[in-house]
Design a protein that fits this description.
Blueprint: H1 6-22, E1 45-47, E2 53-56
Antiparallel strand pairs: 1-2
Length: 71
């Protein structure tokens, strides 16, 4: 893995932890998949030109405890 992929991997892992806490069934955030880039096709994720996640706009209803996400 090259250094350019690391930020997307780190962000993706953090977002997958968030997904697990807020959408454990995966019905709302099904496009959020391990091994894929959150800046390329993840619903509700916006990124800047450097590939950093800048905004989340997840579809409702999502509910859960953020402490479970262990971000």
């Amino acid at each position: 893995m090259d250094g350019a992929a690391a930020p997307a991997d780190d962000q993706g892992m953090a977002l997958l932890l968030l997904k697990g806490a807020l959408d454990p069934s995966g019905q709302r955030l099904g496009s959020w998949q391990a091994g894929t880039n959150p800046c390329q096709g993840w619903a509700g994720v916006a990124c800047d030109g450097a590939g950093r996640v800048t905004r989340l706009c997840a579809p409702p209803p999502l509910a859960g405890l953020l402490e479970r996400a262990r971000l």
